[in-house]
Specification:
The chain contains four helices and seven strands. By secondary structure, it is α/β, with parallel strands linked by helices. It has a single domain, classed as Vaccinia Virus protein VP39 (Rossmann fold, 3-Layer(aba) Sandwich), CATH 3.40.50.
């Protein structure tokens, strides 16, 4: 593991645009990286929390009233406490991961683990918003959502030169 947070790119910008305008009491970003999405979320949420396995290298989030917890996923939080949970997981499919900041595992185990944590941490009437590329078998993610009584639908997308990125929203049924 590199120990460095993921540096924002086109995927983070797409997710940030999908998060723009959302509001509520509390939100969590799993794998917050440098906290850029949290700065956007602070505009619409009273409590904004990010978690990651590495400390952010940028510091502008500190002056924005954002909370950061050095933690794995949402494991340090009680179930059903956030109005919104979001994440941009490592989503590249690889057999053996050399850099877990960008690689999601052979069966995309990392994004699936993020989704399980998000569905556990979000309120029953809440929302989970996340990004995947076109390598993901979206049916598997729909099944995980259905097991938690959430429905999954695409809300934004962008074609890059080698992949299609899609932001999904999981909402209570």
């Amino acid at each position: 593991m590199s120990g460095e947070p993921y540096i924002s790119s086109e995927d983070s910008a797409l997710l940030r645009r999908a998060l723009h305008g959302l509001e509520g009491g509390s939100c969590l970003e799993i794998g917050a990286g440098n906290c850029g999405n949290l700065v956007e979320l602070r505009r619409g949420f009273r409590l904004v929390v990010g978690t990651d396995r590495a400390s952010p290298s940028m510091s502008d989030w500190r002056v924005k009233g954002i909370n950061f917890v050095l933690a794995e996923g949402a494991s340090c939080f009680r179930p059903s406490i956030f109005d919104l949970v979001t994440f941009n997981p490592p989503y590249l499919t690889v057999e053996v991961s050399a850099d877990p900041a960008v690689e999601g595992g052979a069966g995309l185990e990392v994004p699936k683990a993020f989704l399980r944590e998000a569905l556990r941490a979000v309120k029953r009437e809440g929302r989970v918003v996340f990004l995947l590329n076109d390598e993901a078998d979206i049916g598997e993610f729909q099944e995980l959502c259905a097991e938690a009584s959430f429905s999954l639908q695409p809300v934004a997308g962008k074609r890059l030169f080698f992949e299609e990125l899609t932001v999904y929203s999981a909402d209570a049924r």
